[in-house]
Amino acid sequence: MTQPASSCVALVVAAGRGHRFGGDMPKQYLRLGGKSVLRHCLETFLNHPRVGHARVVIHPDDHALYDAAVQGLDLPPPVHGGARRQDSVRLGLESLEGLAPDHVLIHDAARPFLDAGIIDRTLDALATAPGAIAAVPVADTIKRAGTDGKSIAGTVDRAGLWRAQTPQGFRFKALLAAHAAAAAGPEMTDDAAVAESAGLAVSLVRGSEDNFKVTTMDDLARAERMLAARATEIRVGTGFDVHRLGKPQDHVIICGVKVPHETGLIGHSDADVGLHALTDAILGALGIGDIGSFFPPTDMRWKGADSARFIRHAADQVRERGGQIVHLDVTIICERPKIGPHRAAMAKRIGEILDLDPGRVSVKATTTEELGFTGRREGIAAQAAATIRLPG
């Protein structure tokens, strides 16, 4: 079920001082992947079709930090928070009365990895309940500490226990009334508790382990690692090549290595099936064509050319895109010559051509049990796979 975008407003709470985090700057304004922690979650809300507006609750002293963090985003002026998180949310809700949204999503600014699926699940649940929160079931065994804080006083049954996250979604008028009623009472740790105190039913929807709150420096380091992983794309390409045997020659060239044989391979270049298959695999991973696109056999410039030029060009294409070759794997298919004694030299040569650790190169060989053209020793084939890493 979907709501019109204008019926939902996201209220992002960023008024905390982050005492547990430490440092000179509140954690929501720290840089994460080139932009503030706060901006990460705001962009997710602003890009979601079911969220009409987003407003931020900030500390009165943080205007300069806030302005720098949200520069360029289409946001209304921020709202000043109160002494407690509960007060900050209430003040934020009161600022939204003029918009009169049907639903409101309350979110902690220090949770940068909110995703669209969590927003959808939370809003969907509001069709049948006045409140819904993102949460994850407790998987670890829970221990209760004794009065000394060091010894175990007991084990808590984890059945039915969930760890609450944000966003926490509610029907706007019901939550505003619940906060007004709870304003003079004891502090509550989240908005679900405020809603529960007013007798409102709150549903649980599946959150995400990635939707964690940045509370310590270790959390920020974890967030940086996650962002780096998301910014990396892994691609795999495959290649295949065949050349006939029969050239008057006492060797074949495979993977840049001369291997003694009674006849050579026939081809426009040096007919190196191994390097040709690897070149196609790299180009295929990039999605930019094949070896013939760059080195057509009709072009006399490549007559008798060393195939090292071809695979080096493919590797240069990876580097120009800011990428890296992670691994190369090639299988030579023939009855003769025997490839096994030359595999290490071939891997080393490929590594030299590409300035790649030979440990990232695999050279294998097989036969077709005397079946087909390779079995009749009419030619040699090679198939290859290339794994590359590119910026996301």
Descriptive overview:
With 392 residues, the chain is an alpha/beta fold. It folds into 2 domains: 5-230, Spore Coat Polysaccharide Biosynthesis Protein SpsA, Chain A (Alpha-Beta Complex); 232-391, 60s Ribosomal Protein L30, Chain: A. It has helices spanning 37-46, 63-69, 85-95, 116-125, 172-182, 191-197, 217-230, 273-286, 291-294, 308-320, 343-354, 372-375, and strands at residues 8-14, 31-32, 35-36, 53-58, 79-80, 103-108, 131-137, 142-145, 152-156, 162-171, 202-206, 232-247, 251-254, 257-260, 264-266, 324-333, 361-366, 379-391. Strands 5-4-1-6-10-7-11 form a 7-stranded mixed beta sheet, with helices on both faces. A 5-stranded mixed beta sheet has the order 15-12-18-16-17. Strand 2 (31-32) and strand 3 (35-36) form a beta hairpin. Helix 3 crosses helix 5. The radius of gyration is 31 Å and the shape is elongated. Residues 1-5 have low confidence and may be disordered.
Write a brief structural summary.
This protein has helices at residues 37-46, 63-69, 85-95, 116-125, 172-182, 191-197, 217-230, 273-286, 291-294, 308-320, 343-354, 372-375, and strands spanning 8-14, 31-32, 35-36, 53-58, 79-80, 103-108, 131-137, 142-145, 152-156, 162-171, 202-206, 232-247, 251-254, 257-260, 264-266, 324-333, 361-366, 379-391. It has 392 residues and is α/β, with parallel strands linked by helices.
